[in-house]
Amino acid sequence: MEKIINKFQVKYLQILDENGKCDEKLKPKLTSALIKQMYEYMILTRVFDEKALKLQRQGRLGTYAQTLGQEACQIGSGLCIKNEDFVFPAFRENGVYMLRGMPIEMLFEFWAGDERGMQIPKNVNMFPITITVGAHLPHAVGTAMAFQYQKKRGAVITYFGDGATSEGDFHEAMNFAGTFKAPVVFICQNNQWAISVPVEEQTASETLAQKAIAYGFEGIKVDGNDVFAVYKATQEALKKARSGKGPTLIECFTYRMADHTTSDDAKKYRKESEVKKWAKRDPISRLKKYMIKKKIFSEKYEKEVLARAEKQIDVAVEKAESIPRYKPEEIFNYMYETLTPDLKEQQEKMKEDLDSGVKEEDKAEEVKEVK
Ligand SMILES: Cc1ncc(C[n+]2csc(CCOP(=O)(O)OP(=O)(O)O)c2C)c(N)n1
Ligand SMILES: [Mg+2]
């Protein structure tokens, strides 16, 4: 006997196209105030990003990973998160942090290399930035399962890229989430690049969303530059998670407009024409077009929003740069609550060297001489 025992489908959702044309039937209920909030947070995210890039170029920040082009993925989803929820970001989610009430100066502090910037205030309910690709996904699912055991109301939402879907951590997390119906929403920002690896070389799957099917739950692909679509898909996924109906994978199809980080030069591996094509699909300008049509936008409003965002960011930079620097030996203080004996020894040695004026260059010379 031979028969088809199952067929699968993957939904794609777009509500607002690149010309700002809206499918009113699909559009969720959104007040003008909420649409304005979407626009204002997307502008704030972009202003943060532009400022961070400039500061890095001036040597005032360390390596920085830009958000440019991914604002709708972050603000559309971030606006659905409630206080009792918990968020596990990767490393581009500055917009989500700001939306959750993270003091902006702490983000600058972190990107300038000061770990104390990631001592996240309790009410923000977010995990620290995770640079290790996909490593936070099992933690996210574990937390969602803990919510389940403790009969807590919250859900967990986690962000990662297309590259992360090739990691074992992603598959283990998805498997646990599906098996235990954990209240978690996986937001994959498919920006089509993992440094220099295009998504076509990442996987043979037609969509990333369909990976959820193998783990027994729904995956949906949305236009990630359409803030309404991201908002609607996240609202529905969170509702499902909160009512015990399990996880969802949302693939937000978007584009990384910037280099991978400030240490990268994307011109070496991708065509300018591709970047130009995606610039026309900019998430902010399409929302602006829609708002103009709906008469909830004016030049005056645009200027005010920008000026307010720039002020907010400038104040945060000033605050971040006025925080007294920590001593070099304090870098050991942020991994464990109590230092392990070998780290304690290293810290003491470092402190001794610093106190006696031994410089890192001198130590390197010593090593060379021994060789
Ligand atoms: C486990 C691990 N392997 C490799 C790296 C180096 N690395 C940093 S970001 C990145 C690409 C990530 O691509 P993606 O998941 O698509 O996220 P995006 O950078 O596009 O937001 C890689 C390979 C890392 N940080 N962690
Ligand atoms: Mg990517």
Summary, kept brief:
With 371 residues, the chain is of the alpha/beta class. It has 13 helices and eight strands.
Describe this structure as you would to a colleague.
There is one protein chain. This protein has 13 helices and 8 strands. With 371 residues, the protein is of the alpha/beta class. The protein has 2 domains: 11-321, Thiamin diphosphate (ThDP)-binding fold, Pyr/PP domains (Rossmann fold); 332-370, no CATH class. The strands form 2 sheets. The chain has a 6-stranded parallel sheet, sandwiched between helices. The model has no long low-confidence stretch (mean pLDDT 95).
CATH topology of the largest domain: Rossmann fold
* Rough outline: globular
**Uncertain stretches of 5 or more adjacent residues:** none
Q: What's the domain count?
A: 2
Give the biggest sheet. Answer: 6 strands, parallel
Note the beta-strand portion: 5-15%
Question: How many DSSP H or I helices?
Answer: 13
- Which structural class fits the helix and strand makeup? alpha/beta
Count of extended strands: 8
Q: What is the spatial order of strands in the main beta sheet?
A: 1-7-8-4-3-2
